[in-house]
Fold:
Amino acid sequence: MDAQSRGRADDIDPADQWVLNPQTGNYELRLDRSAGHSVGAPRTSGGAPRAGERGGATRTASSRADAPGRTDVPGQRTRRSARGAGASGGADGGTPAGGPGRRKRKQRKSRKKKVLLWTGGTLALLMVGTAGAGYLYYEHLNSNITSISDDGAGTGGFSPDRAINILLIGTDKRTGEGNSGYGDKNSPGHADTTVLLHVSKDRGNATALSIPRDLITDIPDCQTTQEDGSTKVIPGSRDVRFNVSLGQSGRTPSCTMRTVTEITGIQIDHFMVADFNAVKTLTSAVEGVPICLAKPVNDKESGLDLPEGEHVIEGEQALAFVRTRKSFGNSGDLDRIKVQQQFLSGLMRKLKSNDTLTSPTKLFKLAEAGTKALTVDDKISDIGKLRDLGLELGKFDMKNLSFTTVPVLDNPDEPVGRKATVVLNEAKAEELFAAVKNDVSLTEVEAQKKKAAKTKQDALLKGSRAEASDVRVDVFNGGGPAGSAQRTLDWLQNSEGVLKSSNKGNAPADVAATQLEYAPNQADQARKLADLMGLPASALKPGTENAEGLEAMTLTLGPDFQGAGVPISGPAKAPQVEKVTADKQVCAQ
Structure:
C-alpha cells in the first residue's frame, strides 16, 4: 500500500488529500476517512470553524505522472527505500475558505512566499515537490530514485555554508521506450550535454557553464564501481572528445566529474544524469516549456517542425528541439548549446511560475517524474537530502542566473573547411574559471564593465573645447546613407564654421556606428566636434600618439547617422554577447 491507494474512497484523487500547512510551507497527507474533498480548518483560540466552512481546495486532476521504463547508465545502481519518517501526514493543515477578508489575503501571501522558498528553479528542484509530505509518499519517492556511486570524485556532499557545484549530464543513450529510432541505439551513450551549475556561497547568483561535447581534452584515470560492487580503474585517454568521458570504455558519471574538475579546477559536489526519456517526461510534467523561434524550422533529422514565433513544447517535441543542430546558427554543436540554454531557461521560468508553484497536482507530478527520470550520485540518493539541496538551489534570483559556454577555438590541427572539434581558449577560459571559483557573478561583471566604460566615456567629454575654426577633420562614409559625407561637409563649413574639413568619400571599411578617431593632443577639437554633431561619448575613439603638424581627425559616418546636424544618441543596436540570463526569453536562430 502506498500514498496513491491509502485512504482512497469513492474515486477520490489522492491529490485531494494533500493540503498546504501554512505554518510549515509543506503539503501534508490527510488520511482521515472524513477528509473526502475537503479538509477541516486548523483549530485556533477562537474555537472550531463555523458551520459550512471548508478548509483546502478540491483537486480532481491526477497527481501521478506516467513515466517510461528506466534507461540504464553504466555503473553500480541502487534503489533507495525510506530511511526515516518524513513529516507527519496527519497534521491539521487546511485553510478556511471563509473568515475575514484581511486574514484571507494575508494567508495567501504567506502561502505564495513559502511555496516559492520551498520549490526552486533548477532541474534538481524537480525532486523536492513533496519532500515534506507524509511518510508513505516519502518512502514511495525514495524507491523511485536511482543512484550511482560518485567513486570519490565529488566533495562528499554540499554544504549550506559554502558554494555549491552540481554537474548536470545529458546522455544520448537510446534505450527506453520510443528512442531506438534515433540511431546508434546500441551505444552505451556519451556525455552529450554537460552543464556545470555553480551557486555562490551567499546564494545571490549562479552560473550555468556549458561544456562542449566536441572539446578535445584529456580524460584522467577513473576508479569506477562495477555492477558487482567491485572497483576498477579505467585508464585515461589523451586528446579525445570530452563526450567520451561517459559511457565509453565503461566510464560512469564519476569519470565525467573528474574530467570537468581537470578542465576547470572546480571541485564538484554532486551529479545528475538525464536521458532522452527524462526530457520527455519532465517537460510533460510541467505541461510544456515555452520557447521562441526567430525563423520556421523543419528539421528532418530531429523531427522538429514548427513555424516562427513562440511555442510551448513537451514530450517528443521538446526532445526534438534540444536535439536539433543543423537548423540553428552554423549547424554546429556550439549553436545547439545556445538553443539548449534557452530551453533550460524556459524550463526554469516555468518551474518558478505561480501556475506551477501553487498547484499541488503539478508538484506531485514533478516529484514523481523527477525521481524516476534523473539518476543521481549516491550522496544525494535520499529524498530528504534532495529536498535540502533544492532549498539551497532555490534561493538565487532567476535574473542572477547566467548561462555561458566554456571559451573555445577551432582545433588548429584540423584542416580548414573540415573543422569538427574545438580546443580550450586558454586565456579566456582561465579567466572564466577563476571568476566561478571566486564566486564572481557574470551579471555583476557585465554591469561593472558597463559602468566602467560609461565612466571612461563620460570623462572623454569633460574638458576644454577648441574654436570651431580650429577643428580639423576628414569625413568618411562608413555605412551611412549615400552622399552623407558631402552633406556633412557642407553643413560643417557653411553652418558651423568648421572650415578645415574635407570629404574623403567612402571609408576603407564600414563601421557598426559613427565614430570619431583623434589623437590625445586633439581632445579639445574632438569635444567641440562632438558637441556640434551630437556625438555620444561612445563614438569618441582616442588614440595613444599625438598628432603632428596639420594632421586631421577622422570622422566615419555609420548606419546610425541620420543626417547633418541630427544628434546621434548611440549605437544603432546593442552588441551581441555570449551570455544570457535565465529570466529572459531568447528566440532560437
